[in-house]
Design brief:
483 residues, 32% helix, five-stranded mixed beta sheet, LytR_CpsA_psr, Cell envelope-related transcriptional attenuator, transmembrane, 21 strands, alpha/beta, LytR/CpsA/Psr_CW_biosynth, 17 helices, LytR/CpsA/Psr_C
């Protein structure tokens, strides 16, 4: 299956002064350590990562204390938000902060880890979102070259794969007062561009992935077409170890599965992302197979082997709840989506100061719309409120603007109108506050509404009337713009 290894001399990479000058504008504040980047040639070869569904971390919880030690070695403190779904016996409107909080959103990060150049770069990033109400799940893959704002205290812009490295290398800096580490910084960055709460992270390195696949006895993957990569890097990253995998059903051990996930030279990053999601699904099916779930010894073997290679901020009790949810999800119904720069994609190339991917619409609006379309809020879906937006500001076109914004998050706006008299406040009138309690709460939080009244005699076809008053223009909106 593998062609004889080739050798070649390591090239040096010269960066032009023009690129350096442009890059200077984007780099973070000088008080923080420069990230650990390998030279650009080696980055190109070894950027790969692939995904690991959090169920791999969670399966063993079914067996409680028998593998508690191995599980605890993976768990770190959650420095950000937590999922209300996993921490509340009963979900009320007040327990959800906003659209998307009614799902369980997990950031999955792949890194090279120790003994790999640029091992802190998160070369593959994905969000797994689970809808426990409807037993649904979906993934969105984020390309490593996506240009994003780096959260405070750093500032500036860089590729999303560098954000993790910023956080890890500067987590103990005196200027990092909250000791925000790489995973937490990544959670904040993705949450901002998606306008979505990110509750947890799961991070895995190369060795962890290989050990998981091997502990499961390998996986069988349907390779859709021949994969021929004569430029696959060798272990030292100074030569080639050509890779060829024939189309068809292929049994893979950990090493081969990793190579299949990494390979990108003769295909695109987006093809690679699809292969990685394919492996993810195979791992889930293997992990949830009857033979594995009824074998505590095998489960303990897996977690003991990967304890140093996987980290998560999902706590033990949350894992127990999540495990009960994830086991009821039909794998064939899982939705997957890759952000890309295809003709129908939402990204485009930006070659100023390097190679980046940026949103086509020069803002995050269309991406956020797609995210909330795929990760639809189950409580909004259930209530299915018909909304009228009323412009009470006197500013022409505002109702249409609000309609566009709300549609992005999954609200159903059926009518826009202009108030007969201007209003200073944002207001809500609802036909039944109990039936539409989640919709009302989300709108109240989004627009800072304090005046809510009920009108059971509201006109047919309308459940909620949202009046936008003059105070709207003084309140902060949630739309993020790319600079």
């Amino acid at each position: 299956m593998f062609i004889k290894k080739l050798k070649k001399e390591k090239d040096s990479v010269q960066v032009s002064s023009q690129i350096e000058q442009v890059a200077e504008k984007n780099k973070p504040k000088k008080d923080f350590m420069k990230i650990d980047r390998p030279d650009s040639k080696n980055v190109k070869r070894r950027r790969f990562w692939f995904y690991l569904i959090s169920v791999i971390v969670i399966i063993g919880i079914f067996f409680g204390g028998r593998i508690l030690g191995a599980i605890n070695s993976m768990i770190v403190a959650n420095k950000g938000s937590i999922s209300p779904i996993l921490n509340s016996l009963k979900i009320s409107p007040n327990s959800l902060k906003g659209e998307g909080d009614g799902r369980i959103n997990i950031l999955i990060i792949g890194i090279g880890g120790k003994n790999h150049k640029g091992g802190l770069l998160a070369d593959t990033v994905m969000v797994l979102s689970v809808d426990s109400k409807n037993n649904e799940a979906a993934y969105i893959s984020i390309p490593r070259d996506l240009k994003v704002p780096i959260p405070k205290p750093y500032g500036g812009y860089d590729k999303i794969n560098a954000v993790h490295s910023y956080g890890e290398q500067n987590k103990d800096s005196k200027n990092n007062k909250n000791n925000i580490d790489g995973p937490e910084l990544m959670k904040q960055a993705v949450s901002e561009i998606f306008d979505l709460p990110i509750h947890y992270f799961v991070r895995v390195d190369f060795e962890g992935f290989k050990k998981i696949v091997d502990a499961f006895g390998g996986i069988t993957v349907n390779v859709e077409k021949n994969l021929d990569d004569p430029f696959y890097p060798d272990e030292q990253l100074i030569g080639y170890d050509p890779l060829f995998i024939k189309a068809g059903m292929t049994k893979m051990d950990g090493d081969l599965a990793l190579r299949y996930a990494r390979s990108r030279q003769t295909t695109s990053d987006f093809d690679r992302a699809k292969r990685q999601q394919q492996i993810l699904q195979m791992l889930k099916e293997k992990a949830l197979s009857l033979n594995f779930l009824t074998n505590p010894q095998k489960i303990n073997q897996v977690f003991s082997a990967v304890g140093d290679h996987i980290k998560t901020d999902m706590q033990l009790k949350e894992m127990e709840s999540f495990a009960q949810i994830i086991k009821d999800i039909n794998g064939s119904s899982i939705i997957s989506y890759v952000l890309d720069n295809s003709a129908t994609g939402l990204l485009t190339n930006d070659n100023e100061g390097g190679y980046y991917l940026v949103p086509k619409d020069s803002s995050w609006n269309e991406i956020q719309k797609k995210v909330h379309e795929i990760f639809s809020d189950p409580y909004l879906r259930q209530e299915d409120a018909k909304i009228e937006v009323i412009n009470g500001t006197g500013t022409s076109g505002l109702a249409s603007k609000i309609e566009t914004e709300l549609s992005k998050y999954g609200y159903k706006v059926v009518k826009t109108s202009t108030a007969e008299t201007e209003s200073s406040l944002n207001k809500l009138v609802v036909s039944d506050q109990e039936i539409f309690k989640f919709t009302v709460n989300y709108l109240k939080n989004r627009y800072g509404i304090s005046q809510i009244t009920e009108d059971s005699l509201m006109e047919s076809g309308i459940n909620v009337k949202l009046t936008i008053g003059k105070e709207y223009e003084t309140k902060k909106t949630t739309t993020s713009k790319i600079k």
